[in-house]
């Protein structure tokens, strides 16, 4: 394994542990793909530092268990913002809808 990959895997592991962050956030911070982050912290880190890999795996499992909550919260916030926009009417009159049904 090349030295820069070893260093990156160890840095990613430390970053995830320190910040309890997601793979997506780590990928964005380091400017690499989510696939690369995932491979570094699941496969490569296990060979380099098994104890750190175990800690990272625990954090990633917590994130996976909570992702449905985060996704629901993000959707709720998204639609709450849409409702606050002026002129944003979600209701349609029967006449407007019946014109589409012909």
What features would you describe in this structure?
The protein has 102 residues and is mostly helical. It contains 5 helices and no strands. It has helices at residues 3-19, 23-30, 34-48, 50-84, 94-101. α1 packs across α4 (50-84) and α2 (23-30) packs across α3. The N and C termini lie far apart (65 Å).
Descriptive labels:
102 residues; mainly alpha; 81% helix; 0% strand
Walk me through the topology.
Layout: H1 3-19, H2 23-30, H3 34-48, H4 50-84, H5 94-101
Structural class: mainly alpha
Rg estimate, integer Å:
22 Å
How much helix is in the residues? over 70%
Distance between the termini: 65 Å
Contiguous low-pLDDT stretches (5 residues minimum) are none
Mean pLDDT: 85
For the largest beta-sheet, the strand count, sense and barrel status come to: none
Q: What count of helical segments does DSSP give?
A: 5
- According to DSSP, the number of beta strands is 0
The run of helices and strands is: HHHHH
Work out the strand percent: under 5%
Instruction: Give the overall shape, derived from the CA principal axes.
Output: elongated
